[in-house]
């Protein structure tokens, strides 16, 4: 059985232990009960979703997922062309902003869902992304991701999502050079995020800025309550769970 990550809590010094989950949910086209069980078992404070429902009654689908996982909608979905952010009631949402990225003719529209969340005295910027299948477009989106993360105006932030790139790719490398790759910093659980039985690849990741301590990051296979059958049924990606210590803001 996989050892659990530290539980969410606020430390005496005002820092916050925060669990962030990144999950491509394939527009909830698969087993939504299995999806909800996986998310609940991970006990996240924040979920960075990719491929949230984007079309007919997408807001109702987002609300249904939030209810099933004891979370609330923060932002994103169709308005960010797929990325979405959910959270518990623990953080206060200071701001939420959806961003549509420049589009290359013939390719899918992409976007970012962003938010600034306050956990007591700790403030955390959050960005959920799903980058392009095209190498050239993806690299440009990686540069824009770093710009948008800085534009959140907080010293500590996390970016999480489906990169459509591997650690040896130039966009993944761009982000890993500027930020801290959760798995590389503190590996926990399983590394590869492609569907069980598919070629082994790590194309989903959680990154953090300087000052955020990564306590563990990886696919929560074997975590109590996360079953292989649910992971297979929920969607075509595996989730990435990270436990982070976010420093208290300076007074």
UniProtKB/TrEMBL annotation:
Domain of life where this protein originates: Bacteria
Any GO MF annotation of the entry: endonuclease activity
Cross-referenced Pfam families: Exo_endo_phos
Residue stretches in coiled coil: none
Record domain Endonuclease/exonuclease/phosphatase: where: 21-237
Keywords of this entry: Endonuclease, Hydrolase, Nuclease
This protein's name: Endonuclease
